[in-house]
């Protein structure tokens, strides 16, 4: 196929991908490496109760997302307001990030901080639903794989850059002041300032998408004024129709929920294993995180290019096999060097699996229903998000060693691989040239 189906506006692609770059401010800095640690270790005095409270807060956020995501996506499709929806939820995310500056290093601020973190998790995920649906607006059937891979890579690289900025600028060093900026550590001021920097970062890099990418037209035949209850009724009817029209889309949603849970668990427990099993120094974990993001970004770009030739399913299945193999090796080796080698080998396959999973659904989605399906994508992922962490903990408890937890993650990846095996792949339009 030639003509408009093989041509993309590179400026719009870049504007769209810069949102991924900016969103790393929340996912990498606030939720994963900096502010969640500040809440549990500093504000919560490092108590097990504080860590448990963090789990309850994020778990509650996941439940809210599971309930809201499909309807939010559906209504954005119907109204032709994907970009507006992305902008509104992005603004809410940025506001929740900036509000974290008020969370002082005092146990009385633990729950207010956790509530803000949970709210941020909800609105960030809802923004991601509409953002993912916009992928079809900036790509073509022949280029959707590489565009998605480029977006994932931008997210990884954005996380690398900002993590290095906040670490060396606001966190590193000893004494009363922190980092090159020299902010005081008292009352957690330097870490609270990181929340403001992260919020400003996300705002700056979200603007190009809002200014340069046009809005999608309303979906034909859909009301933009459905109430919440009516929207769920329409969603139920759409699910039944979707199953009747193409049940493989429903099968893919289930399979991807499994293997995406395994992917998430890799990042969730990776630093725990690095320190507790393989002897990586606590200060070197951040350096490994930077290297892992670089490798995952390279994998996402390479996987996206390969996908445009062979389709998303072979890329996902090959990536899952690669991750399973690397994890099994990690199960038996020891020492920092082995973790660096096989840990990076494992995350090399994470980027392609994430990117091609997104494009698999985008290729399957009927025009005008991308937001609804990406809402379901978020919901199904949240529905089993407990599985890999629970199995990790179960195997650790059964065998009395953290290393055994790897088996739990491997089982989830294998289940996802087996569930994906019979799913019919979408049609891939060959790229011209």
Automatic annotation (TrEMBL):
InterPro entries registered for this protein in UniProt: Atg22-like, ATG22/LtaA_families, MFS_dom, MFS_trans_sf
Entry keywords, A to Z: Membrane, Transmembrane, Transmembrane helix, Transport
Gene3D superfamilies: MFS general substrate transporter like domains (1.20.1250.20)
Membrane topology category: Multi-pass membrane protein
Subcellular location(s) per record: Cell membrane
A cellular component term, taken from the record's GO annotations: plasma membrane
Membrane-spanning intervals of the chain: 21-40, 52-72, 84-103, 109-129, 150-171, 191-213, 262-280, 286-303, 315-333, 339-361, 373-398, 404-423
MF term (GO), any: transmembrane transporter activity
Main subcellular location: membrane
Name of the protein in its database record: UMF1 family MFS transporter
Protein's organism: Pseudonocardia cypriaca
Lineage of source species: Bacteria, Bacillati, Actinomycetota, Actinomycetes, Pseudonocardiales
């Amino acid at each position: 196929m030639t003509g408009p189906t093989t041509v993309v506006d590179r400026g719009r692609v870049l504007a769209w991908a810069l949102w991924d770059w900016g969103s790393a401010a929340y996912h990498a800095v606030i939720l994963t490496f900096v502010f969640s640690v500040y809440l549990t270790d500093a504000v919560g005095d490092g108590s097990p109760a504080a860590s448990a409270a963090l789990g309850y807060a994020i778990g509650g956020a996941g439940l809210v997302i599971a309930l809201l995501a499909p309807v939010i996506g559906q209504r954005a499709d119907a109204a032709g307001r994907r970009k507006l929806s992305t902008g509104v939820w992005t603004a809410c995310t940025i506001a929740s990030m900036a509000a974290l500056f008020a969370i002082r290093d005092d146990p009385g601020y633990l729950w207010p901080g956790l509530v803000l973190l949970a709210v941020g998790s909800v609105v960030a995920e809802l923004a991601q639903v509409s953002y993912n649906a916009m992928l079809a607006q900036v790509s073509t059937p022949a280029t959707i794989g590489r565009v998605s891979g480029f977006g994932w890579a931008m997210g990884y690289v954005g996380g690398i850059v900002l993590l290095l900025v906040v670490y060396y600028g606001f966190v590193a060093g000893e004494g009363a002041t922190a980092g090159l900026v020299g902010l005081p550590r008292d009352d957690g001021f330097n870490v609270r300032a990181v929340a403001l920097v992260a919020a400003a970062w996300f705002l700056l890099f979200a603007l190009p998408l809002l200014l340069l990418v046009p809005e999608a037209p309303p979906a034909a035949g859909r009301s933009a004024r459905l109430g919440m209850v009516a929207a769920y009724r329409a969603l139920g009817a759409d699910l039944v129709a979707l199953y009747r029209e193409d049940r493989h889309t429903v099968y893919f949603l289930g399979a991807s929920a499994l293997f995406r849970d395994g992917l998430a668990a890799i990042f969730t427990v990776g630093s725990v294993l690095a320190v507790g099993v393989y002897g990586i120094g606590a200060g070197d974990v951040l350096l490994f995180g930077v290297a892992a993001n670089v490798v995952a970004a390279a994998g996402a770009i390479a996987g996206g290019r390969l996908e445009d030739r062979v389709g998303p399913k072979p890329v996902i299945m090959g990536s899952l096999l690669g991750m399973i193999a690397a994890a099994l090796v990690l199960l038996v080796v020891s020492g920092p060097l082995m973790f660096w080698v096989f840990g990076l080998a494992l995350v090399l396959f994470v980027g392609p699996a994430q990117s091609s999973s997104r494009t698999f659904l985008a290729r399957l989605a009927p025009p005008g229903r991308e937001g609804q399906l990406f809402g379901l994508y978020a919901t199904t992922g949240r529905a089993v998000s407990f599985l890999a962490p629970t199995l990790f903990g179960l195997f650790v408890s059964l065998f009395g060693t953290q290393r055994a937890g790897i088996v739990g993650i491997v089982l989830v990846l294998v289940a996802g691989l087996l569930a994906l095996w019979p799913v019919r792949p979408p049609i891939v339009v060959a790229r011209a040239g």
